[in-house]
Amino acid sequence: MNLNDCYNFDDFRKLAKKNLPAPIFHYIDGGADDETTLKRNTESFLKCDLVPNILASVGEPDLSTSVFGQKIDIPLFLSPSAMQRLYHHDGDKASARAAEKFGTFYSMSTMATSSIEEIANVSGGPKMFQLYIHKDQGLTDNLIDRCKNSGFKAMCLTVDTVVAGNRERDHRWGFTTPPKLTLKSLLSFATHPKWAFNYLTHEKFQLANVSHWTKKGSSIAKGVMDYINEQYDPAMSWKDAEYVVKKWGGPFALKGVMSVEDAKRAVEIGASAIMLSNHGGRQLDGSRSPFDQLPAIADAVGGKLEIILDGGIRRGTHILKALSLGATACSFGKGFLFALGAGGQKGVEKILQRMKDEIRRDMILLGCKSLKELNKTKIAYR
Questions:
Q1: Could you report the per-residue pLDDT of 222-263, keeping only the tens digit for each?
Q2: In Å, how far from its chain's centre is CA 183?
Q3: Of the ranges 114-128, 152-166, 173-187, 310-324, which one carries the lowest mean pLDDT score?
Q4: Which terminus of the chain, N or C, has less C-beta within 10 A?
Q5: DSSP 3-state assignment of 179?
């Protein structure tokens, strides 16, 4: 199996599983506790159907939209995702270049393995930085200032990770950053010699944006859950979010909003967007899916800020359903990370092309010339 055999999410996942050592594959693939929310994120799209209009003379549909004050060519962008160097040796650089090629946002995690400045140098495309509030206020301020100086277009604050979810697959496989050999993981690393060679012969693994502040997670191996619990501020509040909005001073999203009350509060503190997200089912298991929450939140704050649906996206039809119910755009993490593990930059470009082709074809079949024509009339519930 190779990239040419990858036609959908499941194909990229299978190839990534073939290429990556088990601890790393399962870090991408897994969720919290029983993984019920992880599964529900995608299953929720099955609750409703698309209703097409025929003879609409669509021609070539316009797939573009605007988010964070930036026009993007497709209504899908890359979610902020940590430690991409583990999935392919080019890591964030590969993802950023692929996103730029498709005219959409690349999002950088605080826990990226390339620095803010490195990515600014390799990609001229629109970039968003995802911030975590650390216990050390100086580190938080440092990250914001560096993003300003490096031309990042937007910032999001992740608000659902003040304590790490119970990701049992990470415990089971002994996943750490950087990876360390254990009796259980040794065989998996040994049976993936190409990955091991690339990991050992390319630049050293580090959490490039924070390594100057703390060695934990870079040269001192830490479990991701341990790092989160040690470094992030569990007392983060609306006051902290408001501080970041003002200090950043540009397009800003709260990532991890799931309730109507919090969506309204986001408007009040000056956020320009919210990302409906449950962290890919990796935090509070048993929580609601973003798609299920979308109609109520769109009714409450639609038009007052941008709404990005993040979670469970596998198909172009998922995106069209979300936009029909009030989302401005969608983002995905697992999809492009499996593609990165499957084939680096070419893999990410491949899945973005597949998704773009699906969106285009499905819009023609729906009878929509532009994304603006997507609304509740296109949706029927079962």
A1: 555 576 667 777 778 999 999 999 999 999 999 999 999 999
A2: 32
A3: 173-187
A4: C
A5: coil
Q: Are 154 and 253 in contact (CB under 8 A)?
A: yes
For residue 217, the model assigns a pLDDT of 47
Determine the structural domain holding residue 311 and report its residue range: 3-381
DSSP conformational letter for 24: H
Please compute the mean of the pLDDT values over residues 107-113 and round it to a whole number: 95
**Judging by beta carbons within 10 Å of its beta carbon (0-12, 13-18, 19+), is residue 342 exposed, middle or buried?**
buried
Question: Whole-model pTM?
Answer: 0.94
Contacts of residue 92, defined as CB under 8 A and 6 or more positions apart, other chains included, come to: 84, 85, 106, 108, 112, 113, 114, 118, 119
Check pLDDT > 90 for residue 182: no
CATH of the domain at 40: 3.20.20.70
SS3 362: helix
Q: Say how many domains are in the chain.
A: 1
**154 Cβ contact partners less than 8 Å away, ≥ 6 residues apart:** 68, 69, 70, 105, 126, 127, 128, 129, 250, 251, 252, 253, 273
Give burial (CB, 10 Å; 0-12/13-18/19+) of 350: buried
Please, which residues have CB within 8 angstroms of residue 200's CB and are 6 or more apart in sequence?
Answer: none
